[in-house]
Design a protein that fits this description.
This protein is mainly β and 117 residues long. It has a single domain, classed as Sandwich (Immunoglobulin-like). The protein is built from no helices and eight strands. A hairpin with a 2-residue loop joins β2 and β3. The termini are far apart.
C-alpha cells in the first residue's frame, strides 16, 4: 500500500489594525472540513498532487462573514495569506503571501515595479 504524497502549507491569518469587531477568531476550511484557528501563522498538511480548496471565514456567534476561498494547485507556492475585512459584512481575501524582509522586523514589502523606458 502506497502512502499519498503530502506537503505542508503555511497560512497567515491577518486581521486589519482597525476592525469593527472584536473577540472573533477565524476558521480555516480545507476541502470542506472546518478547523478553528488563531490569528497569525499556522501550517496545515494537504495533498501534494491534487488541487485543494482552502477557505477561511469569521464567526461572531450570530453570523458568518469575511469568507474567502483559494484553489491551491500543486504549482502554487506553499504560503498563503488570509486578509480579514475591516467591516463585519465584507468578504475576506486569500492570496499567495508576500515575501517577508526579515524575521526580526516582521515587515513585508511588495517588490518595486521595473522602471519604464
Amino acid at each position: 500500500m502506497t502512502r499519498p504524497t503530502t506537503r505542508r502549507i503555511e497560512l497567515r491569518m491577518r486581521k486589519p489594525w482597525f476592525a469593527l469587531y472584536w473577540g472573533v477568531k477565524p476558521t480555516v476550511v480545507i476541502d470542506g472540513r472546518g478547523q478553528p484557528t488563531q490569528w497569525g501563522v499556522g501550517t496545515w498538511q494537504v495533498p501534494a498532487d491534487e488541487t485543494v480548496t482552502i477557505g477561511a471565514y469569521l464567526f461572531n456567534r450570530v453570523w458568518r462573514f469575511g469568507a474567502a476561498e483559494f484553489a491551491l494547485a500543486a504549482e502554487h507556492p506553499a504560503s498563503l495569506e488570509y486578509a480579514a475585512p475591516a467591516l463585519p459584512f465584507l468578504p475576506g481575501r486569500i492570496e499567495p503571501a508576500r515575501a517577508v524582509d526579515s524575521p526580526s522586523t516582521g515587515s513585508s514589502r511588495r517588490p518595486r515595479p521595473a522602471p519604464r523606458s
